[in-house]
Amino acid sequence: MGNSSSMLTQYDIEEVQEHSQRLFSQQEIVSLYQRFCQLDRNAKGFISADEFLSVPEFAMNPLSQRLLKMVDGLNFKDFVAFLSAFTAKASVQQKIKLIFKVYDSDDNGKVSFNDILEVLRDLSGSFISDKQREQVLTQLLKEAGYSKDSYLTLEDFVKVLSILFMFIIIVFILLFSA
Amino acid sequence: MSGSQEKLKPSSSELDLDRPNIEDYLPSGASIQEPHGKLRLSDVLDISPILTEAAGAIVDDSFTRCFKSNPPEPWNWNVYLFPLWCFGVVFRYLILFPARAIVLTIGWIIFLSCFIPVHFLLEGNDALRKKLERVLVELICSFFVASWTGVVKYHGPRPSMRPKQVFVANHTSMIDFIILEQMTAFAVIMQKHPGWVGLLQSTILESVGCIWFNRSEAKDREIVAKKLRDHSQGADNNPLLIFPEGTCVNNQYSVMFKKGAFELGCTVCPIAIKYNKIFVDAFWNSRKQSFTIHLLQLMTSWAVVCDVWYLEPQNLRPGETPIEFAERVRDIISVRAGLKKVPWDGYLKYSLPSPKHRERKQQSFAESVLRRLEEK
Fold it and tell me: Cys-Cys link to B39, which of A101, A169, B1, B372 (CB 3.0-4.6 A)?
């Protein structure tokens, strides 16, 4: 009765589930749909940039503009597919691929020194000088066996990041453990 | 007086038992593990905590939840309840609504036929005119409340007319004002609205003493602060009622109180208002409906049931800043009305957060990087 999950049929839910590699349960997809409808104020079928920015926690995030480019205008199916990388069940490969996509803003499959520098600038703002950022990055790349002119590919990212302890998505687990 | 001294606990329907209490798990700013050790390339490339925070905000955030309408649970789901519900709809729309509309019209006729003469004929005799207008405004508010079959239980001593005191309350809908006005004629500070509401504001409410503000004007705040101060010092002005949240919230959460009401050098008397959602959700979701539609929705439901608590007056304690005072009063009101507190400014509904929040995150990231650069 006025509940938006009545607009999603069982077929719809299964289609969305398939599209996101079955990383979400059907219950989670229904909850995500309610959230999608809540953010999409005039039922256009996608969430516009200013509707994302109306969530203050999102607007305050240093990487919000980059993420906005990736989620702006997505329909519900793609919205769920995007969020599936954040679930606990998603593979480490998938998470690293998302991180790579955030860095690779021109989408050419290579991340340059400047690409990384730009993300660092978003993250640290005016609290580190440009020169110091360059210095730090050059030194770190050298220690990892790369140079200032090297282009990092997805494989390089996997090599560097896969040893890392991945941040477990507590929010998702508890949000959907009904 | 009802024995309402027991601590009010939110009922299970308000606790959302099928979802955990998300406030307990939202990251409060810094990421959960503070990284340490020598800085490596992987630490710089790993943006997963920040991405996760952003994705978490997209999936659910405590701010949007404050403004979500929560209509009462549907109960008409089976063969014999559904016809009963249909009968109820017919009764509400075809019998109750016209009856209420008639009551309201009668009320307006009585009110206007008394108010207009009093207003113009007693122009010279200010004190008497004010007294009569006050009574008349209380009357029309009672008619309004009757037109939605308002069942309002007042707890606590009735507010007294003393200088240097202001009243603050949590805000759910413009009907908060009507419900409180029915008992005592308050002067109020409101956003100037367009349409018939604006007309009412500039004519009738003017007589009880009202202050207008305009959210969109930046300089407005100082002008309004001065008006507030002047009004509260005046001895025979009506007591001032302020809604420090600045916007309508859905009666399950409370957003941050603006400090304007708390730095006037007056006693602050908190009022807590809690609506019982069993018949209707009284939250005015100004994004979704105009006030007229909201009123019509109230007039076609069974009843508006609410509790109003007049709480103990509070003063600024020595060494307390107005912001701390505001938070303390918000605490008192939220506990009484069973509201969950969120640390957001209500005006974020209308504008983006200020860049200093983002800068705070950037600063902590920068400091962590620079610190670890020094470590061996």
Answer: B372
Yes or no: say if A117 and A132 are a contact pair by the CB < 8 Å rule.
no
Identify whether the C-beta of residue B261 lies closer than 8 Å to the C-beta of residue B228.
yes
Beta-carbon contacts of residue A95 (< 8 Å; ≥ 6 apart): A85, A86, A166, B48
Q: How far is B67 from chain A (nearest CA, A)?
A: 10
Q: Provide the CATH topology of domain A91-177.
A: Recoverin; domain 1 (1.10.238)
Strands B304-310 and B267-276: antiparallel
Full-model pTM: 0.77
**Which of A83, A99, A127 minimises the CB distance to B48?**
A99
Parse chain A into domains and list their residue ranges.
9-90, 91-177
The per-residue pLDDT for range B61-90, each reduced to its tens digit, is: 888 888 888 777 777 778 888 888 888 889
For A104, the token pair is 């690779």
Q: Which of B58, B357, B372, B6 is nearest to A80 (CA)?
A: B58
d(CA B260, CA B323): 9
Residues of chain B contacting residue A67, judged by C-beta atoms under 8 Å apart: 51, 54-55
Q: Do A57 and B57 touch (CB under 8 A)?
A: yes
C-beta neighbour count of A121 within 10 angstroms: 15
Q: Which helix (H) or strand (E) holds A163?
A: none
What is the DSSP secondary-structure string of B302-351? S-EEEEEEEPPPB-PPTT--HHHHHHHHHHHHHHHHT-EEEEEEGGGGTS
Structure tokens at A36: 């999608």
How many residues are there in chain B?
376
Going by C-alpha positions, the residue among B348, B162, B166, B160 that lies closest to residue B260 is B166
Backbone φ and ψ of B191, nearest 5°: -70, 135
Handedness of CA B292, B293, B299, B305 (dihedral sign): negative
* Collapsed DSSP state (helix, strand, coil) of residue B186: coil
Taking a C-beta distance cutoff of 8 angstroms, is the pair B250, B283 a contact? yes
User: Is the domain defined by A9-90 classed in CATH 3.40.50.300?
Assistant: no
Is there a contact between B70 and B252 (Cβ–Cβ < 8 Å)? yes
Q: How far is B45 from chain A (nearest CA, A)?
A: 8
All residues at 6 or more sequence positions from B190 whose CB lies less than 8 Å from its CB, including other chains: B177, B201, B205, B210, B211, B212, B213
| Tens digit of each residue's pLDDT (9 = 90 or more) over B269-287 | 999 999 988 888 888 887 7
Query: How many whole angstroms separate alpha carbon B7 and alpha carbon B9?
Result: 6
Which ipTM value was assigned to this complex?
A: 0.84
Return all residues near A172 (Cβ < 8 A) that are at least 6 apart.
Answer: A86, A87, A88, B56, B59
- Residues A69 and A46: their CA atoms lie apart, in Å, by 14
CA dihedral A106, A108, A110, A115 (to 10 degrees): -10
